[in-house]
Amino acid sequence: MLLYHYFDKKTGPFKNLSDLSIDEANRVLRLIKETKPDSMCAKRAESYISDRRRFEDILRAEFIKKGGKIERKVPHYLVVGKCPWLQSWYEDCDFIEIDTDDLDLNTVSFTYGDSHPTFSDKVNDVKEYRKKLYTYDEILELIEKYGLPQDWNPDGEFGPERYIEVHVWSDRGIL
């Protein structure tokens, strides 16, 4: 399975706001809002950093329950397959492609859609993949059943899921 990490060339890959202190992450987010007001990142809510930390705590706890191996406090984020919509997030977008064969799958988890709406109390539909985190084998079954969101929902018309989010809880195979 091919995974993709999208990033702005000026910043570089695998720059994670969650690796920073809350104050520093909020400072970076404010700077993005000032210098790149048209970017997707600039449109994030003021509560984005605290929300993100809360969702990452949920992801970590759920992955540990499934026997996942945590080597980083916060994951590296990627998506399953190419997602043209994510290219629009950055002024000068690039991506890195990583094959799951190069990763320890015991350090990889997935959400069907972005983890924020997946675990948000604001999204209350009856889709079976809400409030759930998946292992590699489990996400393969869900992909078989539903396909990739970027194929059936490229413009977000049918809900918040536009890609499958990947959480790599290790630096091995990434950096």
Task: Please outline the helices and strands.
Blueprint: E1 2-8, H1 22-35, H2 48-65, E2 76-80, H3 84-87, E3 93-99, E4 108-112, H4 115-119, H5 136-146, H6 149-152, E5 164-168
Antiparallel strand pairs: 1-2, 1-3, 2-5, 4-5
Describe the structure.
The chain is an alpha+beta fold. It has six helices and five strands, in the order βααβαββαααβ. It has helices spanning 22-35, 48-65, 84-87, 115-119, 136-146, 149-152, and strands at residues 2-8, 76-80, 93-99, 108-112, 164-168. Strands 3-1-2-5-4 form a five-stranded antiparallel beta sheet, covered by helices on one side. It is globular and about 40 Å long. The two termini are 18 Å apart.
Distance between the termini: 18 Å
Mean pLDDT: 94
Strand order of the largest sheet: 3-1-2-5-4
The oligomeric state is single chain
Total helical segments: 6
Envelope shape = globular
Unreliable residue runs: none
Order of helices and strands: EHHEHEEHHHE
Structural class: alpha+beta
Query: How would you sum up the major sheet?
Result: 5 strands, antiparallel
Overall radius of gyration: 15 Å
Into which percent range does the helicity of residues fall?
A: 25-40%
What percentage of amino acids are in beta strands? Answer: 15-25%
Q: Give the beta-strand count.
A: 5
Which key features would you list for this structure?
about 30% helix, about 15% strand, about 180 residues, 6 helices, alpha+beta, 5-stranded antiparallel β-sheet
In short:
Helices cover 32% and strands 17% of the residues. By secondary structure, the protein is of the alpha+beta class.
